[in-house]
C-alpha cells in the first residue's frame, strides 16, 4: 500500500509539473488534459483519476506553486523581531510575485476572465486569498504577543502585501524597458517594512 501511494504521489507531481508549465506557456484554453497527460508521460485516464477536470487541475497547480515558495516558514521567524520577520517575508513574496509562473498565471486569469470567469475565482482562492489568510495569522501573532499593535489584522495583512509589490512589480508586470536594480528593490522593501512597523508600533 505504501508503494502504491508513493507511485501515485509521483504521478500526481508529474502531472502538476506538466500542467503548470503548459498553463503558463500556452494559456488555459490552449492546454488540454490530453496534452498534459502526454507531457507528464501518463495516460489521460490517470490525469482524470487525480484531478476531476481541467479547472480542478488549474487550481491545484496554482496552490502547489504557492506552497513551493515557502513564504511562511514559521520555524525561521522570530516574532520578537518584527523587522527581520517582515523583511524576510517581503523578499520571498516579491520573488514569488515577479516569477515567470506567477506573472503568467496572473495574465491568464486577467485575459480570460470574461470567457472563463471561474479561473479568476480559482486563482484568487488558491493564490491571493491563501496568502492573505497566512499573512493575517502573522499579524495576529504580532498583536497577540504585543510586539505590534494591530487591531485589524486582515487590513494590515492586505496593506503589507500590496505595499511590498511596489513600483518594481509594476515594471516587471508591464515589461518596461527600464527595470529597477536588485539594490533599488531591496532598499524599497527595507523602507516599506520600516514604514509599516512605524505605523503599527506598540502603543
Any overview of this molecule?
The protein has two domains: 2-65, Arc Repressor Mutant, subunit A (Orthogonal Bundle); 69-199, Orthogonal Bundle (Tetracycline Repressor, domain 2), CATH 1.10.357. Helix 5 (82-97) packs across helix 9, helix 7 (117-126) packs parallel to helix 8 and helix 9 (153-173) runs antiparallel to helix 10. It is mainly alpha-helical and 203 residues long. The chain has ten helices and no strands. The protein is globular, with a radius of gyration of 19 Å.
Quick tags:
single chain; 203 residues; mainly alpha; Arc Repressor Mutant, subunit A; Tetracycline Repressor, domain 2; 10 helices; globular
Averaged pLDDT: 89
Number of strands: 0
- What is the CATH architecture term of the largest domain? Orthogonal Bundle
What is the name of the CATH superfamily of the largest domain?
Answer: Tetracycline Repressor, domain 2
Binned strand content:
under 5%
Tally of contiguous helical segments: 10
| Secondary-structure element series | HHHHHHHHHH
Shape type: globular
Number of domains: 2
Helix content: over 70%
- As residue ranges, the low-confidence spans are none
What is the CA-atom radius of gyration, in angstroms?
19 Å
- By CATH, the topology of the largest domain is Tetracycline Repressor, domain 2
Distance from N terminus to C terminus (CA atoms, Å) equals 56 Å
CATH top level class name of the largest domain: Mainly Alpha
Major sheet:
none
Q: What class would the helix/strand composition place it in?
A: mainly alpha
Amino acid at each position: 500500500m505504501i508503494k502504491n501511494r508513493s507511485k501515485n504521489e509521483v504521478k500526481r507531481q508529474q502531472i502538476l509539473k506538466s500542467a503548470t508549465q503548459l498553463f503558463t506557456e500556452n494559456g488555459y484554453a490552449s492546454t488540454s488534459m490530453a496534452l498534459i497527460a502526454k507531457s507528464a508521460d501518463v495516460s489521460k485516464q490517470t490525469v482524470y483519476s487525480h484531478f476531476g477536470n481541467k479547472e480542478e487541475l488549474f487550481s491545484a497547480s496554482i496552490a502547489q506553486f504557492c506552497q513551493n515558495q515557502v513564504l511562511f516558514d514559521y520555524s525561521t521567524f522570530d516574532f520578537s523581531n518584527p523587522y527581520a520577520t517582515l523583511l524576510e517575508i517581503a523578499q520571498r513574496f516579491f520573488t514569488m510575485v515577479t516569477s515567470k509562473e506567477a506573472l503568467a498565471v496572473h495574465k491568464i486569469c486577467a485575459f480570460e476572465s470574461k470567457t472563463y470567469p471561474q479561473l479568476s475565482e480559482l486563482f484568487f482562492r488558491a493564490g491571493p486569498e491563501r496568502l492573505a489568510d497566512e499573512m493575517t495569522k502573522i499579524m495576529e501573532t504580532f498583536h497577540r504577543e504585543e510586539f505590534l499593535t494591530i487591531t485589524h489584522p486582515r487590513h494590515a495583512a492586505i496593506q503589507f502585501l500590496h505595499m511590498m509589490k511596489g513600483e518594481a512589480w509594476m515594471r516587471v508586470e508591464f515589461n518596461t524597458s527600464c527595470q529597477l536594480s536588485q539594490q533599488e528593490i531591496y532598499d524599497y522593501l527595507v523602507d516599506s517594512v520600516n514604514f509599516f512597523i512605524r505605523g503599527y508600533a506598540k502603543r
